[in-house]
Amino acid sequence: MTTGFRRTCCGIMVAMLFYHLHGSTGFSEEITDAEPVSAEIAQEDILPLTLGTVTIDYYDGELPEQPAVSNSLAEMTEEELLDAAGDIYRGTVESLRTIEIRNGERTDYKTLAEISVAEVYKGGFAPGDTVTIYINDPILSENVWIEDYDVLYQMRENMDGIFMTQAGEDIYTVVGGEKIYLNTFADGRFQDGTRFAILAVEDGLEFARDCYEEPLRSAQTLEEAGEYLKQKIQ
């Protein structure tokens, strides 16, 4: 199965994205000579990836237990949340993979989500694309708890949802003092784990309802949420 960057119905288009992820992990010197990923490359071939002293690879083992982490999210209105997301789209989570980012003795664990796009409300993706989205925490592990990741911790493969992701030229994460741009393996990121996804779960929708206005706050289906977003964003 081909993947890695944005895939379109008629092929794969590499999106050269750069991210700056705040916090204890994030990416050192700006990478300006990264080679585009071949349209024939497979997901397993994108990683492992070596950038200077940093190695990025998939991780299939059990994560060591980590201390709980508390975050403080800046308050944002619904309009600010929708403005902050460069891409807003409905789709299906095709795969979730834990990755490890190693630099010397420092190892951080994150997640890559592969999402097939069905409908676009904002941004440059198109129906039929499959995009790779970076999540700044290992959401598949039960040994890690991060405050304000309540929604993304419920994300699972084959789950439908509405996703609000961000790409930018200055977004990166730093591991062991090295700054690494994510352009080599991701089309975007979630800015936090609570406010930028609406997930279709067994008993309705899971999202940060209090952060959004009516009628979205009371939506019970993705169709209702999507119709509101189409009208709001246009």
Radius of gyration: 17 Å
The helical percent reads under 10%
Global geometry:
globular
Q: Structural class given helices, strands, pairing?
A: mainly beta
Total number of β-strand segments? Answer: 13
Question: How many discrete domains?
Answer: 1
- Largest sheet properties: 9 strands, mixed
Whole-Å distance between the termini? 35 Å
Count of individual helical segments = 3
Mean pLDDT: 80
Beta-strand residue percentage: 25-35%
SSE series: EEHEEHEEEEEEEEEH
pLDDT < 50 runs, ≥5 residues: 8-42
Describe this structure in words.
With 234 residues, this protein is mainly beta. It has one domain (7-233). The protein has 3 helices and 13 strands.
Task: Throw out a few tags for this protein.
234 residues, mainly beta, 9-stranded mixed beta sheet, two-stranded antiparallel sheet, 13 strands, 32% strand
Sequence-ordered SSE layout with sheet pairings:
Layout: E1 7-8, E2 11-12, H1 43-46, E3 49-51, E4 54-58, H2 78-84, E5 87-103, E6 106-122, E7 130-135, E8 160-165, E9 172-175, E10 178-181, E11 188-189, E12 197-201, E13 204-206, H3 222-233
Parallel strand pairs: 7-11
Antiparallel strand pairs: 1-2, 3-4, 4-5, 5-6, 5-8, 6-7, 8-12, 9-10, 12-13
